[in-house]
Amino acid sequence: MDLLDILRDRRLVAIIRGRDAEASFQAGLALVEEGIDVLEVSLTGADALQVIGRLANAVGDRVALGAGTVMTVTDADAAVAAGATFAVTPALGPGALRCVELGVPVLAGALTPTEVWHAAAAGATAVKIFPASLGGPAHLAALRDPFPDIPLVPVGGVRADQVRPYLDAGALAVGVGSPLVGDAPHGGDLKALRERARSFMEVVA
């Protein structure tokens, strides 16, 4: 399946942004073991490229593994070299455009209608609505009216009880960071992470 098919089927992207590389790697493995197989590792996390490489080696083709916060051409090149199979950006910029040039699927960040349009026109595979918490499901639903054919993925503050409202509003999938992973990527509780993972999986099932 291509990335759009995967997102349409899984409906959930887990975002790992950790202060501890080993903990981030273990959090990623735990998420995969709980059935969440679309992961984004933010490049703002500790040794993120190493984490991506280790996860790529550990889980291989079983997981769609992305790099997040891809801002520059260098970021894009390094993420792909590390093993990322897609990229996520907070805004449309050089990193997103480099991914399009490389043929790597990219979720380019946008918030306003103009930004959504430009991200899609630039070749983004899907548009990341960020920060989604500013407008909630109602904002996403409003964007769906003029852009029914542009895949939208809300990210930023999406709680478990908001997942279904976003999907009902027309989201292709949701991206979830701290409400799902908590403190696990910083060395925190993996058992609690697994429990939250099961809760999110129940919602998107």
Descriptive overview:
Helix 2 packs across helix 10 (190-204), helix 7 (136-144) runs parallel beside helix 8 (160-168) and helix 8 runs parallel beside helix 10. This protein has an eight-stranded parallel beta sheet with strand order 7-6-5-4-3-2-1-8, sandwiched between helices. The protein has a single domain (3-204), classed as TIM Barrel (Alpha-Beta Barrel), CATH 3.20.20. The longest helix has 15 residues, at 190-204. By secondary structure, the protein is of the alpha/beta class. It is built from ten helices and eight strands.
Whole-number mean pLDDT: 97
Oligomer: single chain
Provide the number of structural domains.
Answer: 1
Query: What is the count of β-strands?
Result: 8
State the CATH architecture: Alpha-Beta Barrel
User: Structural class of the helices, strands and pairings?
Assistant: alpha/beta
The run of helices and strands is: HEHEHEHEHEHEHEHEHH
- CATH class division: Alpha Beta
CATH topology: TIM Barrel
The main sheet comes to: 8 strands, parallel
Q: Count the helices. How many? A: 10
For the record, give the distance between the C-alpha atoms at the N and C termini, rounded to a whole number. 19 Å
Strand content: 15-25%
Helix content: 40-55%
| Physical arrangement of strands within the biggest beta sheet | 7-6-5-4-3-2-1-8
CATH superfamily: Aldolase class I
State Rg: 15 Å
Shape annotation: globular
Low-confidence stretches: none
